[in-house]
Amino acid sequence: MTSPGAKAIVGWLVLFGMPSCGALGRVHECQEVVEAVNTGLAELHVEVPDAGADAAAYARIADTYEALNQRLTALAPSDASLAKALDGYLDVTQRAAKNSRSYSEALTARGGSKKERSDRDTRLTRIRTQAQTDLSREAQVVRKLNSVCHPQ
User: Fold this and answer.
1) Residue 80's pLDDT is what?
2) What are the DSSP calls for 36-96, one per residue?
3) How far apart are CA 145 and CA 77, in angstroms?
4) pTM for the model
5) What is the pLDDT of residue 47?
6) Which domain holds residue 130?
7) Beta strand residue intervals within 32-113, DSSP E
8) Is residue 33 within 8 Å of residue 74, measured between CB atoms?
9) Using CA atoms, how far apart are residues 69 and 71, in angstroms rounded to an integer?
């Protein structure tokens, strides 16, 4: 025989325990995302400050963004809002990898003529402008991730 108290506890768990399991799952998934992003950003921190005009440094930055993108893609969160926010961050990492790779390639392109050097400088300026735009996009995406993982 089951006591009325035990039935009440089971009822409370069914009513209130299930939603918390979903919330707990999101917390766990958020932690995984945060850990992956922080690890990737720590790896980038080593390269970015000293990149200057070093094409190899920008290639390493692109590699680091690509590795971060792969780690984040592997997470595949089940929470729809977290998955959508993560997709936004994946877009940022893809663009950052592409821009870094393009910048590296432009730096290695040595034009002999004045026109070739001018074209190279124009390309470098365009890539820097795109990267600046992506910084504001990244800030928006991080705010979205924070609002999903830390709702107020």
Assistant:
1) 92
2) HHHHHHHHHHHHGGG-TT-HHHHHHHHHHHHHHHHHHHHH--SSHHHHHHHHHHHHHHHHH
3) 12
4) 0.77
5) 64
6) 29-149
7) none
8) no
9) 5
